Task: inverse folding
């Protein structure tokens, strides 16, 4: 009965994720079509009608909207996201070659952010001393309100211009050399993420701390270590995990800027290049991938939160 | 008076830090004695300081910025006021069990009931791990939980209010403590469930000779099962009286509490209520703190000192100055 | 006079009062400088007045940029553009989203509810910056496109909040009571539901303002919103990037102004939320 309930809840959430996923697909499809004017003629300018018709066909813009959509879905199911107008590579190939770097960037930042946030958030919440709390709130508020590109610029100014610890631009994909290029972007992302995550851990520990069961735990004589894990951290974790999954999505969006600054060949910079060169199929494909990843992340985040704390409604 | 009592509270004063300099007394001159195997009811309106008095018995005043300012607090001869962490570790969960307020709490939401029971059982470091499940089931049987095997694997939100409270009691009695502190254990539960929980506590006292402090604001409920009832008003204990002679109370406040029972109302009669609101913390009147609300008040009640408890019979003490004049 | 001062002091000491006050003061200063310096200052934002890359001095506290324009004048002429675009980018979606959310919360037609509801979820699934970048491809870059795009996409976040709130409020007892008393539906919506819902969406709008400022300047930084020679923080930072090693003032001053505005708003937001919670 118990197992069943868990399975049912998770399946229900999966159903919602799939329906949002469907809409993500519809939006990626629609984005090229809802805007007034014809993207094909806009791109080609005043050339002859034949070339425009050719491009319309290539962009899946001919025929009725239903035909277009059914072709779009069929192609998707075959793993066909179209072909880049700029380079002639398939979009799926472009995504495949640029996405991993972006994912590493985010995973590393998340990892470090979590490792830093747990001790910072819990210890400040537990001590509860007003001056420390105000300082903490103030510093994180400033970091959060600062755009990532400005933080990145200051980072470059310090670590590249003043003390040449990081190259100005470029990238080498091989393992030990790439760290030289990656560490600064990871630090910038980590800094931002730590501010958000530690704030959430902070406020959720503050909330947990006031709960009666915590008092009961103390009185029961639960050992220090066990008390920390099961009475403070675990009950506070569910909101943190939900936020973390959301933040990873936001960070994914922010890589568009970060990868441009650090000239990293990730999917974000690829998207900006595609936008600047009006490479419609690439923009559309990357948008879809971003949407799908975000939906997936929020599904996983909700499920983990639910498994940590069954009171969570997902 | 020696260390023979299980618990001895004498003129206890608990202060809370409001700001850096400002202090507020929330309990002032509270006195209470519990013998082994006794059930004592601690009753009073909200804000009378009963919860804080309970917290002082389990050493968690500090969490609320409160501390014991003066007085005596002895548990089985051990001074709890100066107790260090190591002393508390030997007492909490082992010799003093705690049942929290039911309305707010319940078991830890992120641990199974089984895990929490295990925690309580393993407070005894020498307990053989092999017997853990057996002992868990045994405890759940004592608190009369049906299908204990299933409950062990469940989380608190899957249990009803009464079940949660039974689990909390099971945890509290795991080490067979000498004293159980139950802070409003039945508030917010159905009336029938309340009666069941009370019956359970009574059974536990009978089987294990455990003393119980039962906090409540419901005098009739408490009166059913307690040996003695201690009445608190505005941070002080105003009367201690054997439950069976509650009607012979000599304190107007106790009488007022007793008379405000709904079931005493004759059909179409009027429900008696207590005049006014309890005085708020920090603005207690001098002398008798009930004087503002009392029907029997005389000038001498407003003396400029705290009123001590006067012994007027076998385990009957009152702080009312006019106890001998008050006829029912 | 004195009582007013005392009243203000009491207000300030309430939870969050200090944050709200500091934030407003910071924001007010920025707006004031944004009005004074470009209009009454000695230079124009796109006037060439001296040697390129002149470091900060008494005469030019923020220095001169790569074309010899006064960085201080440019930084403060951006105030109106950045805050203005962000204001439009917040207030239009706020209005659209709140209305759609209320209508959806009160709607009876199941198909409409699930269709619009999933559309909202779908739009919200994308990070704002990403969907904005993608739409700019088709709409063409520029500040006007940015405002249009924010109107098209950002309403969904408000609609979600407004809908949830409208559902909660419409189930409340006093609404039921008003219905039984025979008040017209229009009156119930306008008098009870709308104020209740909008107080929530407006509160979100304040924090969204920060996000939108960052998104707008971020898009300009990528070269997709404000275009040179227009003075705008994001594009000034992007322009200065190439000369970062020699002339840090090209990047740092517009960046600080951007930070200053966002931080001031975040102080206000935090102050208000603390006041609501009373801690």
Result:
């Amino acid at each position: 009965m118990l197992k069943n309930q868990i399975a049912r809840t998770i399946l229900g959430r999966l159903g919602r994720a799939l329906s949002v996923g469907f809409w993500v697909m519809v939006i990626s499809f629609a984005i090229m079509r809802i805007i007034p004017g014809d993207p094909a003629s806009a791109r080609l300018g005043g050339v002859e009608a034949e070339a425009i018709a050719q491009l319309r066909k290539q962009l899946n813009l001919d025929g009725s909207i239903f035909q277009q959509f059914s072709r779009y879905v069929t192609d998707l199911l075959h793993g066909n996201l179209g072909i880049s107008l700029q380079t002639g590579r398939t979009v799926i190939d472009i995504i495949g070659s640029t996405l991993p770097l972006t994912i590493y960037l985010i995973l590393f930042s998340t990892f470090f952010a979590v490792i830093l946030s747990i001790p910072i958030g819990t210890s400040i919440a537990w001590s509860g001393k007003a001056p420390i709390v105000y300082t903490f709130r103030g510093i994180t508020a400033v970091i959060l309100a600062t755009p990532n590109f400005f933080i990145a610029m200051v980072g470059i100014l310090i670590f590249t211009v003043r003390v040449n610890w990081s190259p100005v631009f470029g990238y080498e994909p091989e393992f030990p050399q790439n760290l030289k290029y990656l560490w600064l972007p990871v630090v910038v992302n980590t800094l931002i993420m730590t501010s958000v995550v530690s704030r959430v851990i902070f406020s959720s520990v503050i909330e947990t701390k006031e709960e009666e069961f915590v008092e009961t735990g103390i009185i029961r004589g639960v050992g220090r270590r066990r008390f920390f894990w099961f009475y403070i951290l675990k009950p506070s974790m569910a909101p943190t995990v939900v936020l973390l999954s959301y933040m990873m999505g936001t960070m994914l969006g922010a890589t568009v800027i970060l990868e441009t600054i650090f000239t990293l060949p990730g999917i974000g910079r690829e998207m900006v290049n595609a936008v600047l060169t009006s490479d419609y199929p690439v923009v559309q494909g990357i948008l879809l991938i971003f949407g799908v990843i975000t939906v997936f992340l929020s599904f996983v985040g909700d499920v983990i939160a639910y498994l940590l704390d069954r009171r969570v409604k997902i | 008076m020696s260390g023979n009592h299980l618990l001895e509270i004498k003129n206890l004063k608990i202060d809370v830090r409001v700001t850096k300099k400002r202090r507020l007394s929330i309990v002032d001159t509270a006195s209470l004695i519990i013998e082994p195997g006794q059930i004592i009811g601690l009753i009073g309106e909200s804000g009378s300081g009963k919860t804080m008095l309970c917290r002082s018995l389990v050493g968690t005043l500090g969490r609320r910025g409160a501390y014991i300012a003066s007085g005596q607090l002895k548990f089985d001869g051990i001074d709890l006021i100066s107790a260090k962490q190591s002393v508390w570790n030997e007492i909490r969960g082992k010799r003093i069990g705690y049942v929290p307020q039911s309305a707010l709490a319940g078991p830890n939401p992120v641990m199974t009931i089984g895990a929490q029971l295990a925690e309580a059982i393993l407070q005894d470091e020498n307990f053989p791990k092999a017997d853990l499940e057996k002992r868990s089931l045994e405890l759940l049987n004592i608190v009369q939980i049906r299908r204990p095997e299933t409950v062990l694997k469940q989380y608190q939100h899957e249990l009803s209010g009464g079940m949660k409270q039974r689990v909390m009691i099971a945890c509290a009695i795991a080490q067979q403590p000498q004293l159980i502190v139950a802070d409003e254990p039945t508030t917010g539960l159905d009336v029938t469930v309340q009666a069941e929980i009370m019956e359970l506590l009574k059974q536990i006292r009978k089987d294990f000779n455990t003393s119980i402090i039962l906090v409540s604001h419901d005098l009739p409920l408490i009166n059913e099962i307690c040996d003695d009832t201690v009445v608190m008003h505005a941070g002080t204990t105003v009367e201690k009286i054997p439950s069976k002679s509650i009607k012979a109370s000599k304190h107007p406040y106790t009488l007022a509490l007793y008379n405000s029972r709904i079931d005493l109302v004759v059909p179409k009669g009027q429900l008696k209520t207590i005049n006014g609101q309890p005085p708020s913390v920090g603005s207690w009147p001098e002398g008798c703190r009930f004087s503002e609300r009392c029907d029997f008040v005389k000038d001498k009640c407003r003396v400029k000192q705290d009123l001590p408890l006067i012994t007027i019979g076998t385990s009957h003490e009152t702080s009312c100055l006019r106890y001998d004049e008050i006829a029912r | 006079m004195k009582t007013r001062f005392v009243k203000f002091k009491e207000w300030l000491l309430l939870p969050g009062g200090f944050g709200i006050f500091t934030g407003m003061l910071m924001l007010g200063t920025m707006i004031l400088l944004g009005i004074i310096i470009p209009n009454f200052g000695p230079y124009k934002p796109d006037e060439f007045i001296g040697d390129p890359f002149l470091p900060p001095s008494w005469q030019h506290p923020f220095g001169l940029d790569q074309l010899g324009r006064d960085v201080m004048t440019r930084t403060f002429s951006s105030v109106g553009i950045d805050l203005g675009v962000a204001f439009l980018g917040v207030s239009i979606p706020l209005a659209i989203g709140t209305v759609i959310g209320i209508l959806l919360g009160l709607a009876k037609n199941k198909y409409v509810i699930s269709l619009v509801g999933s559309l909202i979820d779908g739009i919200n699934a994308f990070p704002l910056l990403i969907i904005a970048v993608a739409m700019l491809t088709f709409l063409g870059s520029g500040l006007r496109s940015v405002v249009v795009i924010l109107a098209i996409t950002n309403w969904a976040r408000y609609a979600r909040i407004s809908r949830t709130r409208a559902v909660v409020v419409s189930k409340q007892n006093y609404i039921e009571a008003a219905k039984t008393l025979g008040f017209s539906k229009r009156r119930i919506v306008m008098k009870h539901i709308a104020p209740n819902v909008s107080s929530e969406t407006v509160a979100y709008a304040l924090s969204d303002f920060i996000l939108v400022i960052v998104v707008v300047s971020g898009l300009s930084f990528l070269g997709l919103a404000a275009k040179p020679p227009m003075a705008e923080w994001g594009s000034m930072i992007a322009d200065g990037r190439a000369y970062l090693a020699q002339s840090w003032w090209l990047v740092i001053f517009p960046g600080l102004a951007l930070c200053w505005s966002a931080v001031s708003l975040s102080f206000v937001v935090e102050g208000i939320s603390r006041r609501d919670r009373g801690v």
Remarks:
- The mean pLDDT of chain B is 84.
